[in-house]
Design brief:
The protein is of the alpha+beta class. It contains nine helices and ten strands.
């Protein structure tokens, strides 16, 4: 999962800019709307909506904005109907890239994705070409000041698969379908949950150990992530800390 983790860290540091914040809000609102359309507007009966709701609130999206998105999704308010579509491809160095998008026009978004890949040194691939290299997982980020053994006991008892240190925090990984239950159990045990999210984790990673190579990979990832229809970009790369420090 290194690629997504490193990219998430970079995005977090970039996210202080108003433009980046506004774009993040728009993407989160789309996710809430689509989750409500597919599973209904009841948070208790729609785990995906509950996760997206919590994700939006954690990003400081106003509550009334989220509620309007839910109503658009359920049809109580008029809105654009978005479709979920995925794109697969490669960044330089053979790095596998998996893109999740929401669009109101597949005929527009598909060619644009192909163009973004090719103009930034990557290449788009056929459906299924890289998807098999990723697994849907839940990620619960817990405040890093807590005792590892105590957190591990609570997390494993809740059904988590793994726990590891990520920067100053703990990262708990679980099966995607158990994300909310594991997060709730950890919180109920007295730990501070900073975020809960669904992700696609690579089953193996490619190490990018040069500044030039890292720049080339991140150029493709950043260009894809900047597209208005793109919700998430996942990739199976790992950049060592010393190279990351040099980039920053």
């Amino acid at each position: 999962m290194s690629g997504h983790s490193k990219w998430a860290t970079i995005k977090h540091k970039k996210g202080a800019a108003d433009k980046a914040r506004g774009k993040q809000f728009a993407k989160l609102i789309k996710q809430v709307e689509v989750a409500a359309r597919s599973g209904g507007g009841d948070l208790d009966g729609n785990p995906t909506l509950r996760t997206m709701f919590q994700k939006a609130r954690a990003a400081s999206v106003p509550l009334d904005t989220i509620e309007r998105a839910v109503k658009r999704g359920t049809g109580e308010l008029e809105g654009v109907e978005y479709q979920e579509v995925n794109y697969e491809g490669y960044a330089p160095g053979g790095v596998a890239v998996y893109v999740e998008a929401l669009t109101d026009n597949r005929n527009r978004t598909g060619p644009e994705m192909r163009s973004v890949f090719s103009k930034n040194g990557g290449s788009i691939a056929e459906p299924g070409a890289v998807a098999w290299q990723f697994e849907r997982k839940g990620v619960v980020v817990v405040d890093g000041s807590v005792d590892e053994d105590e957190l591990m006991e609570a997390a494993l008892e809740a059904g988590a698969e793994d726990i590891s240190r990520q920067g100053d925090d703990w990262q708990v990984v679980t099966d995607g379908s158990s994300t909310h239950d594991v997060s709730s159990a950890i919180e109920a045990a007295g730990f501070v949950v900073k975020s809960t999210d669904l992700t696609m984790m690579p089953t193996s990673v490619i190490s990018i150990d040069t500044i030039e190579g890292a720049k080339a990979v991140l150029k493709v990832i950043e260009a894809l992530d900047d597209h208005d229809d793109v919700q998430e970009v996942y990739a199976n790369f790992d950049i060592p800390d010393d190279v990351m420090a040099a980039l920053e």
